[in-house]
Structures are given as C-alpha cells and as structure tokens.
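The data are set out underneath:

___
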Amino acid sequence: MIPPNASLVKYDNPVLVSRNTDKKTPRAKALKASPTPPSATGPVPAPPKQSKGGAMDAKAAQQTDEILNSILPPREWTESGQLWVQQVSSTPATRLDVVNLQEELDRRLQQRQARETGICPVRRELYSQCFDELIRQVTINCAERGLLLLRVRDEIRMTIAAYQTLYESSVAFGMRKALQAEQGKADMEKKVNFMNCEKRDLERQVNELKAKCEQIEKRAAEQRQVEEKKHTEEIQFLKRTNQQLKTQLEGIIAPKK
C-alpha cells in the first residue's frame, strides 16, 4: 500500500473501503480506523467533558469525529483498483506531540529548502499543515475552540486568495500596459521615420527653391545692369544730342545779329 503524500496532520491508519472504485458507497467516509495509541512519554491532557453513561460518551465521541471530518476531510486514494480511506486522528495530543510537531516542521522546511522571507509556496503549504494539526489537537479538547480556529483559517485563506487574485490581475494589467507600450513604441518609431523622410523631402525642396531664388536674383541683377547701362547710354546720347542742338541753334542765331 502506497499512502498519499506525508502531511504534518496526524491521521489514523488507512482503511480499505472497496476493491472496486465503482462500488463505492456513500457510507465509505463513515468508516474509521482504530486510533493509534498515544505516546507513552509525557502527560496526556484530559479528554473533553463527557456526560455520564456509555451512550452519552459514544455520542460525544461521534460528534467530535464528525466535527473533525468536517474540518479536515478524510484522504482517499486508489491503489491496484482498491479504494483506501484515511481519516484524521481523534487521539488527544500530548506536550511531546507539540514539540515533535515543531521539530518536524523545522526539519521539513529545511529539507524542502523553503525560503525564509518573501513569497514561498512550500513554506505556506507546511505552515498550513501545521495550523491544521493544531486545529485538530484543539478540536479534540474543545470543539467550539476548534470551530473558531477553523473560521480564522478560512479567513486567512480567503485573504491570501484575494491577494493572489489581486497580484495576478496586477501582473496581467502590467503585461497589457507593457504590450501597449511596445506597440506604441513601434508606431512611434514608424512615425519618426516618416517624419524624417518628410523632413528630408522638405529640405530638398527648400534647397531647390533657394537655388531658384539665387538664379532669379542673378538674372534680375544682370537685367538691371543691362537696363542701367542702356539707360546711361540713352542719357549720354540725349545729352550729346542736346549739346549739338544748342550748338546749331547758337550758329543760326549768331549771323542774324
């Protein structure tokens, strides 16, 4: 028989429920193995208060078992077509059991190389098993106290699950933002390349327009020089013509006197 993974929670000996898993009956979980005898060393704590009479004692023990089974359900596994069930132990714990639990917890933390700080699934699993074992020990002596610890355990698990959901959603949000940033970066790089190409085209157009302006200014300057020269020549011609006319006019007027 191969038992399931070892746990810090104390269980009874496994019980063979059925040789065929298809024939499992609803009363399978009600079967319970004989409790293991408590350790001989160390004082045994007083069992929970019970009423006088064997019937009342049996009823109280059955009620405690039901509470234990509701808090820590039995483990089931199949081996060679046989269904085995292992229920949580209802044996009261001694002081030595608590010391051994602490030592076993430290040993498994070291054996499985659990991290001392930060998020560590291994450390969380082992401490959860240790808390379940403490709940089991308390429930045997006081069912009400065990149920209260059960509420504390469920609240802690719910809080951790909420933080885990929040962490996963924040990681997903971060990934979406990172992808959007990468996509935006690629789009921005394309836009930058397009703007650079447009800038080069505009610079080329500016150079062409500057060259045209220089040519126009050069032709305008040449044309202005030609016109100024022509204008100067016309003025000189007109001055000479005027001078000649004055001379001729003076020659005509002089003989008459």
Observations:
- Strands lie at 15-18, 75-79, 82-86.
- Confidence is low (pLDDT under 50) at residues 21-53.
- The two ends are 165 Å apart (CA to CA).
- The first strand starts at residue 15 and ends at 18.
